[in-house]
Amino acid sequence: MSWDNENNHQTINNDNDSSFEQKWNQFKQMYQDKWKQYLADWSFKKWLKYALVFMFFVWMGSGIYIVEQGNRGVVTRFDAYANTTMPGPHWHWPYPIENVTNVNVENQRFIEIGYRSTGRQRIGSNSVLPEALMLTKDENIINVSLAVQYQIKNAKDYLFNVKANEKTLKQVTESVQRGVIGRNTMDYILTEGRSQVVFEIKDEMQKAMDMYQTGIVISSVNLQDAQPPEEVQDAFEDAIRAREDKQRLINEAQAYANEVIPKARGASARMLQEAEGYEAKTVEQAKGEADRFEQLLVEYEKSPFITRKRLYLESKEQLYKKSNKVLVNVESGNNMFYFPLNQMNSTNNTASNQLPLNKRLEETSSSSRPVYKTRTSVRSSRSK
């Protein structure tokens, strides 16, 4: 019984597979017949027309272009300038009607004059003597290496006004450089004139580029190296060392003069001020003595004896005050005494020498000042 069921199930599956294959063949045959009929209805002209339409749209689509940031698109129509486009998507008539050239206006370009760099970092440059050697104003030969950085400021002028832009810039740089170097001496170029020389070269180069309408702007000019030729390098270094020694000695002498002269002027001014102060003090003191004498004369005329005695005592007081004195009590002392008079005198002389100038002058003038006598005392002395 089970064997009969399995045979029936297998028979049903075979019938289903055959029916599915039969339907698929019918479907495929129907579409093949329709496609053949469709191709038979199309003629060669229809095929050509649709092909041309398709090619036209592809050709028109090829005119779409994108200008990258920092670039400018220069559009030419039949190789003549048409317009300049800014960064972004644009469309132009496809080739051969129009063409687009992208020019980078933000990239820094550079050229080397007098040397050629090795490596990406431009280290270990090699000198190019035909470009580097030039004559200075004082008829010396100098080896100069120059690096110039530039940008494109006008894409139209850059592409159409000059044929070989970099070659033209290099020739202009060499010409301007030789002209500026020839107007200056070698010492000026190697020492304090480097920045001025670079400024003149850059200014004249930019004027020449603007005159030629190259569309180039000079960003910077760097004087990489400036030195005498190798054949005279040792002699030139000796001359430089001698010049540096000369300048060093001049600076040292100037520094010494700047240190000594203000001190001498200050000492001179101080002495003048002390002398003027002493003069004013002496004059005022003399005036005071004269006034005192006049006042004393009036008192003397009133009481001559008392005034004479007081003047005598004051004179002795002034005399003993400035002299060395030794007081000895003979009654209560021994018969023999030791007095170090030399040591006492030397001590007093040293103390007097350490006084200021005005004090010493004052003491000298006071010690040499004459003793004034009153008119009455003079008369009395004469009468006696």
In words, what does this structure look like?
The protein has 384 residues and is α+β, with helices and mostly antiparallel strands. The protein has four domains: 2-41; 57-104, no CATH class; 109-228, Band 7 domain (Tetrahydropterin Synthase, Chain A, 2-Layer Sandwich); 260-330 and 339-377, no CATH class. The chain is built from twelve helices and eleven strands. The chain has helices spanning 2-41, 44-61, 129-132, 155-160, 165-182, 186-190, 194-212, 233-302, 304-321, 341-353, 357-367, 375-383, and strands at 64-67, 71-77, 80-85, 88-91, 98-104, 109-113, 115-116, 126-127, 133-135, 141-152, 216-227. The strands form four sheets. Strands 6, 9, 10 and 11 form a four-stranded antiparallel β-sheet that branches. Helix 5 (165-182) crosses helix 7 (194-212), helix 8 runs antiparallel to helix 9 (304-321) and helix 8 packs parallel to helix 11. The longest helix is centred in the C-terminal third of the chain and has 70 residues, at 233-302.
Shape: elongated
Estimate percent helicity.
55-70%
CA-atom Rg in angstroms? 59 Å
Question: Kindly state the mean pLDDT as a whole number?
Answer: 77
CATH superfamily of the largest domain: Band 7 domain
Quaternary state, please? single chain
Question: Which CATH-level-2 architecture of the largest domain?
Answer: 2-Layer Sandwich
SSE topology string: HHEEEEEEEEHEEHHHHEHHHHH
What proportion strand? 15-25%
- The structure class reads alpha+beta
Number of helices: 12
